[in-house]
Design goal:
It comes from Streptomyces albiaxialis. Keywords: 2Fe-2S, Dioxygenase, Iron, Iron-sulfur, Metal-binding, Oxidoreductase. The protein is of the alpha+beta class. Helix content is 21%, strand content 24%. It has two domains: 237 residues, Naphthalene 1,2-dioxygenase Alpha Subunit, Chain A, domain 1, CATH 3.90.380; 111 residues, Rieske Iron-sulfur Protein. The strands form three sheets. The protein has a seven-stranded antiparallel beta sheet, with no helix packed on it. A five-stranded antiparallel beta sheet has the order 11-15-14-13-12, sandwiched between helices. Strands 6-7-8 form a three-stranded antiparallel beta sheet, with no helix packed on it. It is globular, with a radius of gyration of 22 Å. The structure holds FE2/S2 (inorganic) cluster and fe (iii) ion.
């Protein structure tokens, strides 16, 4: 039996939004290649010549650190015959980026500096054939790139959007994220559309069912309260929990900027289009999503601590394990949902229950960018 109820304000997006390759291609162009996209953790590129390649929309973007120590981003495409310059996900070049095909060589600012026999090729102007640059900004210790020729204002569309949803407060600023050190990173290859992952992150209706460890520490989540989006709320730890850890054991010292009002509290925020940040007193968890296909999304998750915690070699595994389990539980739920998106039962979408109504705003944001609002 199929239902044919017309989509309403309380309906999710229709199933095709999660399965249609053509719609995904439009999301790549009109969303990921247009907005600021959180691509790389700045400290991962720890020296001149260190590079990382990431997929942004349909493009491969190469991010590297130049000799002055600044991050630079380019399309990962050689200007000669279009070979991919770097095929590895990360690495370090000594002085320059050399194409493996005919050895055109670019400096770390993307300038074409050498090519075999170039001096005899009078019709090739070196100045004309540098790598295509990509706009890059650093914030929160991450490099954000934008492929649009004229990027939207970072202050308004990223920082302003976050501050606006935090009621104009600087909740994120208290945690000094840019100064934190990487304790652990997990990468998840999720067989689900990126929007299912965002929607899941934005609701807590599922917490009681699938997150036993999380609801131990944050009992309020057992009620399915939609705290994930409204970060200003900051649910409190359970009385018996000493820290934000898998067994409720004590964590580390509170990060220096975190005020008393934020102690023993958990804050979470979605930074559109593809970042989630979780803030707890002694560490910060940053998720970056890389949508690779309509049914595949890679999520890179960083657990960040005070530098002295990481340098001391302290055991961070109990705090990592808590959200690692949450991630595995969440991504399993998303993977369980993905196949049903192409079912006739989901042709008109599903239902947003009251605690998920704010997800409707995310759907409006997506459809507006796809030119399908209304
Ligand atoms: Fe890169 Fe020829 S394609 S040098
Ligand atoms: Fe969850």
């Amino acid at each position: 039996m199929t239902t044919t109820a017309a989509p309403s304000l309380l309906a999710t997006l229709p199933g095709r939004y999660y399965t249609d390759p053509e719609l995904f291609r439009r999301e790549q162009q009109q969303l990921f290649e247009t907005e600021w996209f959180c691509a790389v953790r700045s400290a991962d590129l720890d020296r001149p010549g260190a590079y990382r390649t990431v997929r942004v929309g349909a493009e491969s973007v190469l991010i590297t650190r130049n000799r002055k120590g600044e991050l630079r981003a380019f399309l990962n495409v050689c200007r000669h015959r279009g070979a991919q310059l770097c095929t590895e996900e990360s690495g370090t070049v000594r002085r320059a980026l050399q194409c493996p095909y005919h050895a055109w060589t670019y400096d770390l600012d993307g300038k074409l500096t050498a090519a075999p026999n170039l001096t005899r090729m009078t019709d090739v102007d070196r100045g004309e054939y540098g790598l295509h640059g990509v706009h890059l900004r650093e914030w929160l210790g991450y490099g954000w790139v934008c492929l649009a020729p004229e990027p939207p204002s970072f202050e308004e569309t990223v920082m302003g959007d976050v501050a606006g949803r935090l009621g104009g407060t600087d909740v994120i600023g208290h945690y000094g994220i840019e100064a934190l050190a990487l304790g652990t990173r997990h990468t998840y290859d999720v067989a689900a559309n990126w929007k299912l992952i965002i929607e899941n992150f934005m609701e807590c209706y599922h917490c009681a069912t699938i997150h036993p460890e999380l609801t131990e520490v944050l009992p309020e989540f057992a009620d399915g309260f939609a705290a994930q989006f409204y970060v200003g709320h900051g649910p409190e730890f359970a009385e018996e929990a000493q820290g934000f850890t898998v067994d409720g054991s004590a964590g580390f010292d509170r990060l220096p900027g975190v005020p008393d009002s934020h102690d023993r509290r958990y804050y979470a925020i979605t930074i559109r289009p593809q970042v989630f940040v979780n803030l707890v007193p002694d560490h910060v968890i940053v998720h970056r999503m890389f949508p690779l296909a309509e049914d595949r999304t890679v999520v890179e998750c960083d657990w960040l601590y005070a530098p002295e915690v990481v340098e001391s070699g302290a055991d961070v595994s109990r705090s990592v394990e808590l959200f690692h389990r949450v991630n595995l539980q969440d991504f399993a739920a998303c993977e369980r949902t993905q196949p049903a998106m192409s079912s006739r039962a989901y042709r008109n979408g599903g239902v947003l229950v009251p605690s998920e109504h704010h997800i409707g705003e995310f759907h409006a944001w997506v459809t507006e960018r796809l030119g399908e609002a209304g």
